[in-house]
Each structure stands twice: as C-alpha cells, then as structure tokens.
Amino acid sequence: MRNQIWAGMIRKAHNLGALAVLIVVAMLTGRAAAVELPDPAAMEASLGEAAVLVEVVEPHLSTIDRPVSVQYRGWPAERVLDRWLGQAWRAPGAEIEFRALDGYVSHIPAERFRQYRAYLVFERSGHPTFSVDNRLQNDKNVALGPWYLVWDNIRNPALRGDGGTFWPYQVKKLWLSTARLDALLPAGIAARHADTAGLAQKYCLSCHQVNGYGGDKWPINLAERVKSLSRPVFLQWVLRPDLAKPGTGMPGLPDMMPTDQRAALADKLYDYLMAVPVVR
Ligand code: HEC
After folding, report:
1. CA distances from 246 to 14, 27, 217, 237, 241 (A)
2. 248 CA → ligand 1 middle, Å
3. Residue 111 alpha carbon to ligand 1 centre in Å
4. So what CATH class is 190-275?
5. What is the pTM of this model?
6. Tell me: the pLDDT tens digits for 193-246?
7. Which residues surround ligand 1 with Cβ inside 6 Å?
8. How far apart, in whole angstroms, are the C-alpha atoms of residue 49 and residue 149?
9. Could you tell me the distance, in angstroms and rounded to a whole number, from the CA of residue 208 to the centre of ligand 1?
C-alpha cells in the first residue's frame, strides 16, 4: 500500500510540477506522506471543477440558542482528498492530519469524511476578509486561510453538537497518517478486527499502547502483554481491576455500560489483543 501511495504522489507531483511540494517522509519513516495544498486557482485547475458555495452553522459564532449561518466557498473535502492523497485515505483506520501554518495539527479519522459532508474552503462569501470571530477564545477576526475545513451541519444538524472540533483553520498541509493503521491493524490481522481496534483505542490507548501507538501514562504494549494473560484473568482485570489488585490506578471499563454489553466488550478486546501481531 505504501508503494501505491508513493506512486500516486509521484504522479501528482509530476502533474502539478512546482505547485506540489512533496515531503518524502514516507521514504524516511515508512509511515506517512504530506502534501502542501495549492492556492485556489491551482486547486480549481487540478480538480477541473469550480468551487461551490456552502452554508454552515459557524461554530465559532454560534451558541446553542442562536445559530449563525455563514457561507463559504470551496470544494468538497472528499474530492480534495481523492485528488491529493489518492485512494489510500479510504483504507479502514486511516487518519488524516490537517497541519496549520503555526504547526497546529488536527487528527481526523478518515471514516468521518465518508460519513459526513465536509468542504475545504478559502473564502467567506459576503464578508470583506476570510476570517471569523472566535466567541469561545474571545478572539476577533481570526484568519482562516489559506484553507479551512467546514462540515455541512445544516443538512446534518447532529454535527452541531461537536462545536468547532474537527474544524481546523489556517490549514496548509494534508498528511495521511498510517501510523495508527500500521500499529493497530498490522499485516496479518483479519479485517474483522478493525472495529475492535477502534474500541481498544477508545477505552485503553489513552494510557497504554499497541505497537507504539497510544498514550504514555502506562506505556506497555498491550499486544505483547495480553498474550501472557488467560481470558479469565484479562476479563477480571478490565471488569474489576480493584478486585484483581486493590488500590490499582487502572480504571475498569465504564460501569455506566449495561453489564452484558460491558462483558461482551471485554471479550472482544481480548480477542483483538490476542490476534494483533506484535510489531517491533
Ligand atoms: C486511565 C488510564 C488507563 C486506562 C484507560 C487503561 N489502563 Fe490498564 N493500566 C493502567 C495502570 C495505571 C496500570 C498499572 C496498574 C497497577 O499495576 O496497579 C494498568 C495496567 C494494565 C495491565 C496490566 C499490566 C501489567 O503488566 O501488570 C493490563 C493488561 C491493562 N492495564 C490493560 C488495559 C486494557 C485492556 C484497557 C482498556 C480496556 C486498559 N488497561 C485501560 C491504566 C489504564
């Protein structure tokens, strides 16, 4: 897959000549590759279609009682991702990073772009500048360019609850990160484990790791550690850690969850952690 990404990137760089700045991190780390987004004129030429107007409830201006709609101009994010990252971003588990001018990085699960409609925009329609006030951070006229990622939260009002999460602005680069994929779903694991890998990430990897991916609070590699545990020992550990080791700092799975669902989750996590190969 890496080779395909690489080949695709070369083709694109070729097509766009000096416009595409290719950072060959894929070759250095074997993990990811970044693309610098071109200016709107080059984007239009490269996509072969005109920008569209999209109306959204602007999370930085809105409150729950007073939604403020704003119109932006740009392209559907899926088109941009296809054009600049090839099909690789559609692989299950891929993550897309949006890198801002100041180095701020926003990680967005690629699945979200198939679930909901997003746009990469470069202009605020009917407004003198491409900027927005940020109500929460008490900032006036926050510059949004060169690119701003917005979500169609009018067609899909459920998205409004997320506020400005996943709305990175001042975006300059896209980065397809396969670090998560390489660690959580390495070669040799069956595709049916993809969902459980996401659950392990959600419930375990803020503190622990699987093959180097995850948190630093207690950075053991669960892919390795769990292979030495029997199922009953594992189940007790994640369901009642306080019984297994009184005074432990390890929290059990959330006890707000219905009991049978919680037990089924623990079982699935064990299946996944036993199946995931240890990558060194
Ligand atoms: C909030 C942080 C946190 C989360 C979330 C968490 N753990 Fe832990 N875990 C710990 C800590 C701290 C320890 C060490 C506990 C101790 O020794 O008292 C630990 C220990 C462990 C151990 C035993 C390690 C050993 O060598 O004895 C296993 C296995 C484990 N966790 C699995 C999991 C699994 C599976 C999940 C997800 C369901 C999970 N943990 C979620 C903090 C966490």
Report:
1. 61, 47, 19, 11, 7
2. 9
3. 28
4. mainly alpha
5. 0.61
6. 989 998 999 899 989 999 999 888 899 999 999 999 999 999 999 999 999 999
7. 203-204, 206-208, 217-218, 220, 222, 225-226, 237-238, 245, 248-251, 253, 269
8. 18
9. 7
